[in-house]
Amino acid sequence: MKFAHIADAHLGAFSKNPPLRDLNLLAFQKAIEKCVEEDVDFILIAGDLFHNPIPNMDIVKKSVEIMKIARDAGIRIYVIYGSHDFSLGSTSLLDVLASAGIFKKVVKMERGERGIILREVKDESGVSIVGISGLSSSAEVKYFEILDREYLERIENPKIFAFHTTIEELKPSYIADKHAVPKSLLPSNFDYYAGGHLHEKIVSSLNGSPLIYPGALFGATYNDLDILERRGFFIVEDFKPRFQEIKVCDFFKKVINADGLTARELNEELLSLAGEDYTGKVVILKVRGELKAGRIADINFHEIREKFKESAIDVLINTYALRKREEKIREVIGETKEEIEENVFREISKFGLNFTKELFHILRERKPDDMSNRVFEERLWSRVYSLLLTAGENMEGEEKSKEVKKEDRNKEEKERVSEKEERGEGREKKREVRKRERRKKESGKTTLFDFMEGA
Ligand SMILES: [Mn+2]
After folding, report:
1. Cα(181) to centroid of ligand 1, in Å?
2. If DSSP codes are grouped into helix, strand and coil, which group holds residue 317?
3. Residues 60-111 pLDDT 10s
4. What is the pLDDT of residue 431?
5. Ligand 1 centre from 219 Cα, in Å?
6. Which residue range is the domain that position 259 belongs to?
7. Directed axis angle between helix 18-38 and helix 57-72, to 10°?
8. Is the per-residue pLDDT at 147 higher than 50?
9. Residues with beta carbon < 5 A to ion ligand 1?
10. Residue 57 phi/psi, 5° resolution?
11. Which of 245, 262, 289 is the last residue of a domain?
């Protein structure tokens, strides 16, 4: 007796990224083809066959075509629901495909006197399969607790227990699954425990029988792609599992440390890295560290990605851990909260104290209950815009007037001079702000941060 244990195919994952979506489907196809080549009696899929309860129709079509390869070779397919391809109280695609005879669901639950009875499905090879679906919620442990274990343990051997659950003792350290089920809640006396849900390959045992998570066939998330090393499924012959690797592409993974680099230098480094040859590879970059100067927005990730894609299948650039150097505020002293606040503003503000105070005043205002979000937003921005337009003048004015106070003689004359300068420079500043505003409007990407940076 020989069967294949597959889990977490997540067909339809990466729906917004066709190259990865197709690689994921290809991994499933390769696995099924391998099953035919190995001439297994049946394939057991331990949950998350699909990424969604109702996937796109083109995904469904492709998936059914692939499963037909096995069916046409006389291989039976058994499926349990995972946490992704199942939604409580509604019909999932799995039900439709089961009705169409593509596969058999092995989840058959009944309420019995001593708890929930999971009915076995007997395969032609003589093996009984029992399955429990994944719930991924607090109900899950409860579910296991009220299983009629006696019934399960009395089912004649050989038998397989399929589940889609995190087992507490086996969960990788990076997984924070609050609803893990302890090993002790699994029924004993089974010949094989077919796990799904954890995307990493895990080989363990329970009372001498294999307890296995094959892991994802490809990966369902960018994080999966980053952390998974060897992917595949298990061929199980007379209950002896053997890992079958499935490889649809190579990965190029690199961590780039931006510490001490300027934004421009980092941009250059990434561009030159992108110029190498990545044929047949998915590139996964993690850029981390603190830029010495420049802004993250100064790095042209679009251009870098496009350059990588000239040879790579796809490129993923993770910049979550990339920072620009924080402007440090020197110790600021004041007697009252307001005074300290003013001194901080004086310290960090390029447009002057009044500008910053006014900006904060505008931003602090709450939306009146009877005003729509749109109107409130429009009003807010128009106030910020007009504040920006006068910002140049305010800044010059403040600085000049400080100087003026120091000088007692020629006071009036100086003031007149400074006013002239103020108007001249103010106009220039105004133009600059207008220009910037227009640019931002055009690019359509104005965020609050653009303004805060100027403040
Ligand atoms: Mn999964």
Report:
1. 16
2. strand
3. 999 999 999 999 999 999 999 887 776 666 677 888 899 899 999 998 888 8
4. 67
5. 8
6. 250-324
7. 10
8. yes
9. 8, 48
10. -65, -35
11. 245
What pLDDT score was predicted for residue 454? 37
84 a catalytic residue = yes
Confidence band of 210 (pLDDT split at 50, 70, 90): very high
3-class DSSP assignment, residue 183:
helix
Q: Which of 160, 167, 132, 165 is nearest to 146 (CA)?
A: 132
- Residue at 314 is within a domain: yes
From 84, 164, 197, 199, the catalytic residue: 84
Could you tell me if residue 121 is inside a domain?
yes
- Is residue 295 pLDDT above 90, yes or no? no
One domain for residues 173 and 28: yes
| Ligand 1 center to 83 CA (angstroms) | 7
Contact residues for 366 (Cβ-Cβ < 8 A; gap 6+): none
> What is the rounded average pLDDT of the residues 335-345?
81
376 and 320, same domain (yes or no): no
The closest of 50, 58, 63 to 8, measured between CA atoms, is 50
The set of residues, in sequence order, having a beta carbon less than 8 Å from that of 238 and lying 6+ positions away, is: 1, 2
C-alpha of residue 162 to centroid of ligand 1, in Å = 14
Among candidate residues 324, 352, 380, the one where a domain is terminated = 324
